[in-house]
Amino acid sequence: MTILEESRWASVAAGLIGASGVALAAAASHAGGEQLLRPASTICLAHAPALVALSLAGDRIRLGGLVALGMTLGTLLFAGDLVARHFLGSGLFPMTAPTGGLTLIASWLVLAVAAALRRR
């Protein structure tokens, strides 16, 4: 069994990303981070439940582990870059947020295709 077949890690990621989303929402409200922290919070809070669902689905969704990995990495890149811009004054590396966003879009598309395919 590989890491992509093990669904428990996706629940751990969901918990951490969900908690980060709530913390970022609080920071945006109380620390003046509406422009960067609010979107980072939204991305986290949108993808944490998706990761929970993928974890619960286990191997019933073809490529579910790959989708969860993509969503986790995409969320970390996208939200992490916005958080770095707010607190550090610069992003993580050039094109981090767009790379994270494209990774998230690709993950959702892989999920759609995988869900449409029949299990053998």
TrEMBL record:
InterPro entries: DUF423
UniProt-listed Pfam families: DUF423 (PF04241)
Superkingdom, natural source: Bacteria
Protein name: DUF423 domain-containing protein
Membrane-crossing segments per the record: 37-56, 63-84, 96-117
Keywords per UniProt: Membrane, Transmembrane, Transmembrane helix
